[in-house]
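If you are new to this repository, start here. Below is one unmodified record pulled from the training split, so you can see the exact layout before writing a loader.
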Amino acid sequence: MRVQLALNVADLDEAVDFYSKMFGAEPARERPGYANFAIADPPMKLVLFERPDLPAGSVNHLGVETETADEVADAEARLSGEGLSTTGVDDTACCYATKTETWVEGPEGHRWEWYVRTGDSEQLANVVLAGGADTCCG
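And here is the target side for that same chain:
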């Protein structure tokens, strides 16, 4: 598992250049208005959304990337068991990937995504493949 930090940025090219230098890594995936880094040290998934309409550097969402769908289901069961409101486990296509995911919102409004990437997609916008929540990060 690794923690995910998704940021809104005003200029994607500038942000990609900065974070490439900062972490000594190139993006694992780049698409229009979107880039993500799979950083080994420290273990982190850094996602950038080009959103000039929002404050630069603001948090889009936070997350935990797991290795299996069972880990997502286990996290959802644990969170629900603690009385936290989740979206339930859904299969979605969002952020240029297909995923199994669940979402929970913290007391300050920060959205947390527990997910496993299951494949590629060619769209940024969310499509719920199973389940019913529309919770995408964009």
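Two things worth knowing about this chain: The longest strand covers residues 111-120. Helices lie at 12-23, 69-81.
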